Amino acid sequence: MTHAHAALPTNMDDCFHDHLNSINPSIQFTMENESDGQLPFLDILLSREEGSSISTSVHRNATHTDHEEQQCEESFMLEQACER
Questions:
Q1: Alpha carbon distance 48, 42 (integer Å)
Q2: Using CA atoms, how far apart are residues 52 and 82, in angstroms rounded to an integer?
Q3: What is the DSSP code string of 28-81?
Q4: 1 in a domain, yes or no?
Q5: What are the residues facing 44 on neighbouring strands?
Q6: Is-contact 19 13, C-beta < 8 A?
Q7: What is the pLDDT of residues 23-80, one digit of tens each?
Q8: Quick one: DSSP state of residue 26?
Q9: What is residue 2's DSSP assignment?
Q10: I want to staple 39 with a disulfide (CB 3.0 to 4.6 A). Which of 31, 34, 45, 66 is the partner?
């Protein structure tokens, strides 16, 4: 497992993190806490809404380039051309 997401009460996050890291010393986990009600997770931005709901949106790092999207678009265009 390379990425996981867990919602815990604030007073339990360090305890849970320590517990996970104590299971196998060869495997160590890192932890990120939300900031301003938001947490980037993979390519998704999780945002805490009023009540207990969470909204999601596409998240791009400031260093993101559209290289992958361009490759996908070019590949799709090539597939369409080959079908003709």
A1: 17
A2: 49
A3: -------BTTEEEETTEEEEE-STT-EEEEE---TT--SHHHHHHHHHHHHHHH
A4: no
A5: 41, 58
A6: no
A7: 998 999 888 888 898 888 888 888 988 887 888 888 776 665 655 555 556 555 556 5
A8: T
A9: -
A10: 34
> Domains in the chain: how many in total?
1
Domain-located, residue 23: yes
CA proximity to 6, closest of 22, 24, 30: 30
Structural domain containing residue 66: 10-83
- For the four alpha carbons of 12, 15, 21 and 23, in that order, the dihedral sign comes to negative
| Residue type for position 1 | M
Q: Does residue 69 fall inside a structural domain?
A: yes
Lookup: tokens for 71? 């490759």
User: Is residue 1 predicted with pLDDT exceeding 70?
Assistant: no
* Domain-located, residue 27: yes
